[in-house]
């Protein structure tokens, strides 16, 4: 297995959205295609395809914080045909590799050396699971990210009525408490960028 990440153009984004995303994510969780394209075209988001050889193995969509120093994994999925074979971890590794290369050429070298960048993931909080099956699914998702170097940022957000535990991973060595604070600040700045102000106040609640 030798997975690499490639940035997706608009045609590829449309194909992945219509072919895979509509099946991989509940309708309630899936942004309209035009919203995803608006993020990528404005530079506030990126879409990546993960390839093993010439075959698509998975995909991810990120939203970039206004600071340019943090990324939220908005969507991450492995194709059904290769699930359960370690491709999820390989895709995350390929994603981090491409972000490392981008960071290497950042012109904010002093900031980069001190802080690095952080990647964040929202996972439904097991504490609010209604059923045992749901509880196990949520725990499994958290274990997946923890296995790949993410840690619990100790931040929980009720987003449109759903409680999410925020996991984070930093590219630079730093005190965990410092990264936890950064996760909260950077993710809040992302929410304020993509969620209308009139909606933010009632639908984004930090717990």
What does this structure look like?
This protein is an alpha+beta fold and 207 residues long. It has a single domain (3-206), classed as Aminopeptidase, CATH 3.40.630.30. It has helices at residues 10-24, 33-42, 87-104, 109-115, 132-147, 176-194, 197-203, and strands at 3-7, 45-52, 55-64, 70-78, 118-124, 151-159, 162-170, 204-206. An 8-stranded mixed beta sheet has the order 1-2-3-4-5-7-6-8, sandwiched between helices. A hairpin with a 5-residue loop joins strand 3 (55-64) and strand 4. It is globular, with a radius of gyration of 17 Å. The chain starts with a strand and ends with a strand. The model has no long low-confidence stretch (mean pLDDT 90). It holds the Pfam family Acetyltransf_7.
Q: What's the average pLDDT? A: 90
Number of strands: 8
In terms of structural class, how would the helical and strand content be classed? alpha+beta
Order of helices and strands: EHHEEEHHEHEEHHE
CATH class: Alpha Beta
The helix count comes to: 7
Query: Level of helix content?
Result: 40-55%
Low-confidence stretches: none
CATH superfamily: Gcn5-related N-acetyltransferase (GNAT)
CATH architecture: 3-Layer(aba) Sandwich
The coarse overall form would be: globular
- Main-sheet strand order equals 1-2-3-4-5-7-6-8
Q: How many structural domains are formed by the residues? A: 1
Biggest sheet, open or closed, and with what strands and sense? Answer: 8 strands, mixed
CATH topology call: Aminopeptidase
User: What Rg do the Cα atoms give?
Assistant: 17 Å
InterPro entries: Acyl_CoA_acyltransferase, GNAT_dom
Protein name: N-acetyltransferase domain-containing protein
Organism: Blautia parvula
């Amino acid at each position: 297995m030798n997975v690499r990440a490639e940035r997706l153009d608009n045609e590829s984004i449309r194909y992945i959205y219509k072919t895979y995303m509509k099946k991989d994510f509940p309708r309630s969780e899936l942004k309209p295609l035009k919203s995803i394209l608006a993020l990528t075209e404005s530079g506030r988001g990126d879409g990546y395809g993960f390839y093993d050889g010439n075959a698509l193995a998975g995909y991810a969509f990120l939203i970039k914080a206004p600071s340019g120093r943090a990324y939220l994994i908005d969507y991450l999925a492995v194709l059904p045909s290769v699930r359960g074979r370690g491709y999820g971890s390989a895709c995350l590794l390929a994603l981090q590799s491409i972000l490392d290369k981008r960071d290497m050429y950042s012109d904010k070298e002093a900031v980069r050396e001190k802080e690095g960048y952080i990647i964040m993931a929202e996972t439904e909080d097991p504490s609010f699971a209604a059923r045992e099956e749901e509880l196990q699914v949520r725990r499994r998702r958290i274990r997946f990210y923890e296995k790949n170097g993410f840690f619990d940022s100790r931040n929980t957000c009720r987003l449109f009525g759903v409680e999410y535990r925020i996991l984070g991973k930093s590219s630079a060595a730093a005190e965990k408490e410092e990264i936890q604070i950064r996760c909260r600040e950077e993710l809040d700045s992302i929410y304020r960028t993509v969620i209308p102000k009139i909606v933010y106040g009632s639908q984004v609640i930090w717990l």
